[in-house]
Amino acid sequence: MTRAYIPLSVPNIKGNELKYVTDAVETEWVSSGGSYISAFEENFAQFVKVDAAVAVQSGTAALHLALMEVGVESGEEVIVPTLTFIAAVNPIRYCGAEPIFFDCDDSLCLDPIKLEHFLEQECNYEDGIVRNKATNKRIRAIVVVHVFGNLADMASIMPIAQKYQLKVVEDATEALGTTYTEGVYAGKLAGTIADIGAYSFNGNKIMTTGGGGMLVSNNKQYLDHMRYLSTQAKDDLVNFVHGEVGYNYRMTNLQGALGLGQIEQLSIFIETKERNYRLYSDLLRECPEYSILPFREGTKPNFWFYSLYLPSEKNIQVKMDALQLKRIQTRPIWGLIHEQKPYLKNQSYQIEKAEHYAKHIINIPCSTNLLEEDVRYVAQSINEIFGE
Predict the structure, then answer these.
(1) End-to-end CA distance of the chain
(2) Rounded-to-integer distance, Cα 228 and Cα 237, Å
(3) Strand partners, 234
(4) Predicted confidence band at 289 (pLDDT cuts at 50, 70, 90)?
(5) Fewer beta carbons within 10 Å, N or C terminal of the chain?
(6) Does the domain formed by 17-263 have CATH 3.40.190.170?
(7) What is the DSSP pairing of strand 138-145 with strand 77-81?
(8) Confidence band, pLDDT 50/70/90 cuts, at residue 288
(9) What 3-state class would DSSP assign to 179?
(10) Measuring CA to CA, which residue among 206, 202, 276, 224 is closest to residue 47?
């Protein structure tokens, strides 16, 4: 019998999703209005321990609104990691600004040491404005991406940003539910520390609405304005009066219905992710050929992605192909963004670890519907192929 294919990361839709979506369809509330949007927002805000949240149509829309809200304008620059998915970077261009690409630390997230060194040595700071010496452009903000469920070193990054009066946007797309357990931010969840946090609910995330995104902030004015912009900046709903250039970014009620069913199960999803991660770690005991990367100490991660670190980059693609023949999907880290065609002319700063990790990591199946027998089969296959 042919073994079922084991994909990298797929949705788990086994709760009340169909019930809620069916109700939205039967009541004909399917567009960007309806009770499921607000119910999803309320449940999401409760989960991440904030007062309110704003639901939008994608994580990219969330980042675009967040960057505009913190004041990013045409001709300015934004600091961003190169080791990330390109959707974390493109909204900077939507604002007419340009990214400056930074290295990662061993958590795969933005390196705060290099961030501080760049601002001290490569920039001028006067009257509350940071200017890049190389371009003379104002640097307005930092986008911090929490990669693969890890938390960036926010305890180091935030004081640096405050010293230079830079706004910070957290892309918490991959770390929904990850929590600091130690330090100044103990008890705080990914996305709730910076000026604005953005999330995505794409199909491969720990929970999904098909597409969809969310915004959170401790600044109520930010949230109210982003909600306003996401609904075409309507001042008068009857006479169609608009006060600003708005966007069609509001989440649909169908997405909200799906999201409500998913958020109800999120704690279970995280428990499953952790259980499978620990089983992988036990079955793939550290050896010279490979090891599972750990998560940052002092945090409780959501264990979204499992990163297999390979000290030698020799024949990695050949071995991934061998796993594919065993019906196991794996994936390398994204191509680094400073090496992508649209951004080849942009400034990058001391990128070293990101280049190393991009050549030495593959991600292995991590869906929340993985059975124990699936994890054991994947681990056995890795041991056979990578341990040769």
Answers:
(1) 26
(2) 12
(3) 242
(4) confident
(5) N
(6) no
(7) parallel
(8) confident
(9) strand
(10) 206
Predicted TM-score of the model (pTM): 0.96
Q: Taking the CA atoms of the chain, what radius of gyration do you get in angstroms? A: 21
Which stretches within 231-367 are classed as H helix? Answer: 253-263, 266-283, 316-325, 353-360
Question: What residue segments make up the domains of the chain, in order of their start?
Answer: 17-263, 266-386
Report the C-alpha gap between 279 and 240 in whole angstroms. 56
List CB contacts of 249: < 8 A, sequence separation 6 or more.
56, 57, 58, 61, 64, 65, 229, 230, 231
**pLDDT tens track for 16-55:** 999 999 999 999 989 888 999 999 999 999 999 999 999 9
Taking all residues of the chain, what is their mean pLDDT, rounded to a whole number?
Answer: 96
Could you tell me whether strands 234-236 and 98-102 are parallel, antiparallel, or unpaired per DSSP bridges? unpaired
**pLDDT tens string 57-113:** 999 999 999 999 999 999 999 999 999 999 999 999 999 999 999 999 999 999 999
